[in-house]
Specification:
Blueprint lengths: L1 H5 L8 H11 L14 E3 L4 E4 L12 E9 L5 E5 L9 H5 L2
Antiparallel strand pairs: 1-3, 2-3, 3-4
This protein binds zinc ion (ZN).
Length: 97
């Protein structure tokens, strides 16, 4: 896992995205629905969710970029669409090559 972290593509949560997230999150603490904790962490890197492709050879699968928010106690994970938080994909990622 540590080796993977060294190969950083640069797709990270920007300060602007964190501002937007804080704005949406609001001042009221949000409790974890699994363990009840109020301690969350926003992962630095953006994750991706591959949509299931029905034509595997013809089309590169569509990808949804995600901001990962993890409960610090139990690991319950929230996934927010990075595009909604203002992330602009670079060409290298959008091409899917
Ligand atoms: Zn939790």
């Amino acid at each position: 896992m540590r080796i993977m972290a060294l190969i950083n593509t640069g797709a990270v949560v920007t300060p602007e995205m964190r501002d937007r997230l804080n704005q949406l999150w609001g001042n009221r603490p949000k409790h974890c629905s699994v363990c009840g904790s109020f301690s969350w962490n926003v992962e630095e890197s953006i994750a991706e969710l591959h949509l299931l492709a029905t034509l595997p050879q013809l089309v590169s699968p569509q990808v949804i970029p995600l901001v990962v928010i993890t409960c610090q106690t139990c690991g319950n994970t929230l996934l927010l669409n990075a595009l909604k938080l203002g992330w602009v994909p670079s060409n290298s990622l959008a091409g899917g090559v």
